[in-house]
Amino acid sequence: MRTVMMILALVTVWGGNATAIIHLSRNPEES
């Protein structure tokens, strides 16, 4: 079941990147 672990890892990374991008796009002046 390595594929499941790989998918979970990718989802976690993509989730973190998505939230970071959303915060930057919403608050471009604060960054």
UniProtKB/TrEMBL annotation:
Superkingdom, taxonomy of origin: Bacteria
Identification of the protein by name: Methionine/alanine import family NSS transporter small subunit
InterPro entries xrefs: MaAIMP_sms
Organism: Nesterenkonia alkaliphila
Pfam families named in the record: MaAIMP_sms (PF16951)
UniProt lineage: Bacteria, Bacillati, Actinomycetota, Actinomycetes, Micrococcales
